Amino acid sequence: MNSDTYSITFLIGSMKLFVIIPGYNEQFYLEQLLEKVTKITRSIIFVDDGSTDKSTKIAAKYTRHVLSHLVNLGKGAAMMTGAEYAFRVLNADAVVFLDSDDQHDPIHLPEFEKKLKKFHIVFGVRNLGSDMPLGRFLGNKSASVLLNLLFGAYIPDVPSGYKGMTKKAFNKLKWKSSGYEVETEIAVRVAQLRMPFGIVDIQSIYHDRDKGLTLLDGAHITQKIIQWRFGL
Amino acid sequence: MILLQILSLLFGLFMIYMARIHLMKQHIQVAEFYLWSSVWLVFILLAIFPQSIAGFAQNLKIARIFDLLVIIALMILAYLTFHNRINYKKLEQKLEKIIRKHAIDEKK
Hints:
Largest sheet of chain A: 7 strands, mixed
Number of domains of chain B: 2
Radius of gyration of chain B: 20 Å
Oligomer: heterodimer
Order of helices and strands of chain A: HEHEHEHEHEHEHHEH
Number of helices of chain A: 9
Order of helices and strands of chain B: HHHH
Helix content of chain A: 40-55%
Distance between the termini of chain A: 47 Å
CATH class of chain A: Alpha Beta
Shape of chain B: elongated
Strand order of the largest sheet of chain A: 3-2-1-4-6-5-7
Largest sheet of chain B: none
């Protein structure tokens, strides 16, 4: 039994779960995130999306599962690489995605594991309105309302990157987005497929260097939602 | 010859010259070069002798020959944009697959 298997068995019973962290030039926050994650599990897959900084070196100190994209493809593509590696090569039962900018507290991982036994997909939902900047709060709410109007399912905190899914859900969802709009596409597909989903309330940590989404990104995502609605 | 016709003539010649440069750099093949040269040659001829398609424009109930040329140009542009978008999407998907395969194979 290798260390990965041991930590999984110890942590989450019979489910073989991996944490996938897609990252692009995140050397400033990656180390502190990995420190926190390794306190909970060592089953980590870091997907370096063509970084030019020290992200890969930092990740390699914490896990042997470091995958590197030759060029930057985008968050969605990095998530797909991590998921394919987890499910096809490591035979994982489920994965949980975490953003590499230390916005998400890994302390919620056991809750994800618990919920993944009941639901094939679990969304990490930030406590809207607390620490969240007003712009993001409004953007998030608008996305949920728009999704509800167009697809008939209310999914809170659509842009949250903290989410878990089983192999079955991954095979059903198979997102095509290679960029940051991937979170919205996953929510759209869950709504379209009428998949029951679980929710884990999470606390977000906001840093000075947060990249966040711009108004232009918001417009792009809105355009994508409309495109998906009409099957384009 | 009015100014617009002179400008159209110069633009057409410039585009044939561009096609030739790309042929020399082997970015396009000979057949494609002849195709584009023919397109721009027709464009130049129509710019110099617009009355040659006056009857055709009338049959289509288009009042001015210039309007007909704009409609044809827009149709060509729409086709090329669509064609480019499809090719771009295909290339993007291929690139993504190759990069993903490389990343996973390296870890196996």
